[in-house]
Amino acid sequence: MAEKRKKTARTAKSTVNSSPGRVAGSGVKSKANGVKSAAAKAPTRAPAKKTVARKTAKPAAKKPTAAPTAVATCQSGANEVLKVIQHSLDELKAANVRVLNVRELTDVADMLVIASGNSDRHVRSIADRVVQDAKKAGFRPLGVEGERDGEWVLVDLHDIIVHIMLPRIREFYRLENLWDVSAARREAAELAAAAEG
Known about the structure:
With 197 residues, the chain is an alpha+beta fold. It has helices at residues 2-18, 38-41, 68-91, 120-136, 167-173, 175-179, 181-196, and strands at 95-101, 111-116, 143-145, 152-157, 160-165. A hairpin with a 2-residue loop joins β4 (152-157) and β5. The longest helix is centred in the middle third of the chain and has 24 residues, at 68-91. It is globular and about 75 Å long. The N and C termini lie far apart (129 Å).
């Protein structure tokens, strides 16, 4: 009978220390006899570290240069958007539509489209139509700015930025002269000729 009690006490010690939520070596006393268990006295092991497979360095391969087809595809996508924009501008009678190729001048956009509306309501409706038609064609605009005031609305269509302005705003900012290098050169030549003459 005494042997059964010892075995029961040993079993109780092992179940207390191996029960879920208990950490071996935490110094928990056994309920059976109030003595620290043998597992509690043993040094604890650190949790096993996860081994992470390291990527081996591969020999550097030559990076392919941009294929002309990728550039052509990008340009054809911009041309499709441009057709949609021009159709929208023609449909709503935008005035003085000008398309500027700024691909060589900036990384922000490939083309700028500048158009005028007769009133702030006309400017807003042109911008709304451009956005609607672009969405229908599958080109989602990144953003639209200036719709509330209606004096100058900017529609960002990734590679093409559309500026729709009132004529007085367009004359004040003169974006065509800012972005069109050939026009700027002509204007500089005209100013130089006027100064000499």
